Amino acid sequence: MVFKRRDPRPLWKILVEVFWPRGGWGRAFEYVKHRVRRLPDTPQKISRGIWAGVFTTFTPFYMLHFVVAALIARVMRGNILAALMATFFGNPLTYVPIGVISLNTGHFLLGSRPAEQFDESLIAKFTGAGHDLWHNFKAIFTPAKADWQHLHIFYDEVFFPYMVGGIIPGVVAATICYYLSVPLISAYQNRRRKALRAKLDQLKNSAEKDG
Asked: How much is the pTM?
C-alpha cells in the first residue's frame, strides 16, 4: 500500500514552519491567546490549565509534553485544552533559555558541575544517548548486546539535572502566567457577555418594533 502526503508543499517548507510559522511567532501567539480566551470554562479552570502547560515546558519530556500537560491539568482540575495550548510557551525560541536555566539550576541543587552549554561534550552526550537507543533497538532483533553506557551518562549529567532544575523555574513561570491570565480572561469573558447581551437586547427591541 502506498501512502501519499495530503500536503502538497515540499517537506523542507513544512519543517521550516515548525520553527517559524507563517506570519511569525507573534501571529501564532496571538492566535493561541485568542483561542484560550474563548474556551467555554471559568477563568480559574482555564488558568490552571495554563499553569500546567507552562510548567510542562520546563520538563525534559519533550516528546510527551501534551501528555504531561494533560495529566497535570487533570490533577489540578484545570482545562485540558488550555493546558495543551499553553505548551506553546515552549517553542524553538524559548527552549534554549529554558534548557540553560533548568540544567544550571539542577546542577546547582544537586551539587554537581554543569557541562559547558552547547559545547562538544554536551552534544556528544545527546549523540551518545541517541546511538545507544538505536543500537539497543537493533539488538532486539540481532545477536548484538545492548549497551546502556551513554544513556547512563546522559541520564546522570543531562536528563536528571534538567528534570530537577526545571521544577523551581517552571513553578515560578507557571504561577506568574496563572495570576496574569485570571484577570485577563475574566475581563474578556465579562466584555464578551456584555456585548452578547447588548446584541440580544437590540434584536429583542427590533422584534418588538416589527411586531
From this structure: 0.73
